[in-house]
Design a protein that fits this description.
Elements: E1 18-21, H1 26-37, E2 43-44, H2 56-66, E3 70-73, H3 81-86, H4 88-108, E4 113-117, H5 146-166, E5 171-175, E6 177-179, H6 192-206, E7 210-214, E8 220-221, E9 223-225, H7 226-239, E10 246-248, E11 254-255, H8 256-267, E12 272-276, E13 285-286, H9 291-295, H10 304-317
Parallel strand pairs: 1-2, 1-3, 3-4, 4-5, 5-10, 6-9, 7-12, 8-13
Antiparallel strand pairs: 8-11
Helix pairs in contact: 1-7, 2-4, 4-5, 6-8, 8-10
Length: 324
């Protein structure tokens, strides 16, 4: 069991074992790429078929064998409005088990520095905008993804409890809506941006004259390229230490209607766009206050139009091999 550790800001040891939980997902794969580019040469990852993080015995055996000095906990069951509202038990149960198993095993087997990745859906549905970190637990959650949000809130509390009880310099980061390579483009399981990319790309391929999107298009959302997120994660691991979760975003947002227009331009769609207002909009606005992140010395660098164009190019390069 690890004793209390005093954190000193500075570069992490590039030769230490670094476990990226969820290294094949959207966030985990970006963190892996970032760490590789920064010279980490003992990266550790396991596919879910090789290590089921919901299995406590297997997770503890894995940590006992490898004893990673650093951990980025990016593994999670994730999905969009439809998936979250249809399978709330799965999102609550699976994520709680993944988190508890990894966090407990990491503590038991000496992990020095750990980053837990949450989601901006942890904040109240009607939190004041932009959303500050201290808005957590001050109001009701968005009901379409409250089960997932509760699981992520539990993860934040778990990290804070470990800091208090064991003195370990573990931290949490709360990203805004992410997009980029290795995203989930499934019609039923994807978030709004990859769903739009797939929908408009298919419309171009089929020569469709009309595309219909969910909701009114009026909600405002913030989007961060996952490569920027990975950069922020490493920066926080090397420079931040505190019990409060840190928001990670761009500090600016767009309407879903404007977002759809950017995607349409990126894929070359020229037809009509309609909106099905019988479908839910979700939270009216979700923009993170990133003041604490800025004070820690980091800001996003990938512009939305640039990021969407590169994501469309990646999606098309996979020729049906993406998650769907």
């Amino acid at each position: 069991m690890t004793d209390s550790i005093e954190f000193r800001p500075g570069p992490l040891d590039r030769e230490a074992t670094f476990y990226v939980a969820g290294h094949r997902g959207l966030v985990g794969s970006a963190i892996w790429r970032k760490l590789e580019s920064e010279g980490f040469d003992r990266l550790l990852g396991r596919k879910s078929s090789e290590l089921d993080l919901k299995n406590r015995e297997d997770v503890f055996a894995f940590f006992a064998e490898h004893k990673p000095r650093y951990v980025a906990l990016a593994a999670a069951k994730v999905g969009g409005i439809l998936a979250n509202s249809t399978y709330p038990v799965d999102f609550l149960s699976d994520n709680l088990r993944i988190q508890v198993n990894v966090l407990d095993a990491a503590r038991e087997h000496g992990t020095e520095r750990l980053l837990f990745l949450g989601s901006s859906c942890i904040y109240p549905k009607f939190a004041a905008q932009p959303i500050r970190e201290d808005s957590l637990l001050t109001g009701h959650l968005e009901p379409t993804n409250d089960a997932y949000a509760i699981a992520k809130i539990a993860g934040i509390m778990h990290v804070q409890a470990i800091r208090r009880q064991y003195g370990l310099p573990w931290i949490s980061a709360m990203p805004t809506n992410l997009y980029g390579p290795e995203d989930n483009f499934s019609p039923k399981g994807s978030h709004v941006l990859p769903a739009l990319i797939r929908r408009y790309d298919e419309a171009v391929s089929l020569g469709a004259s009309t595309v219909t999107n969910w909701g009114s298009g009026s909600p405002r959302r913030e989007f961060l390229h996952v490569d920027d997120m990975a950069s922020a994660c490493l920066h926080l691991l090397e420079n931040y230490d505190g019990p409060e979760q840190v928001n990670v975003g761009t500090g600016s947002d767009v309407t879903i209607k404007d977002l759809a227009g950017i995607v349409a331009d990126a894929v070359g769609y020229k037809g009509d766009i309609e909106w099905d207002t019988s479908k839910p909009d979700g939270t009216p606005q979700k923009l993170l206050d990133v003041s604490n992140l800025a004070r820690a010395g980091w800001k996003a660098s990938i512009q939305l139009e640039e990021g969407i164009r590169s994501t469309v190019a990646w999606y098309r390069s996979k020729h049906g091999q993406v998650r769907s």
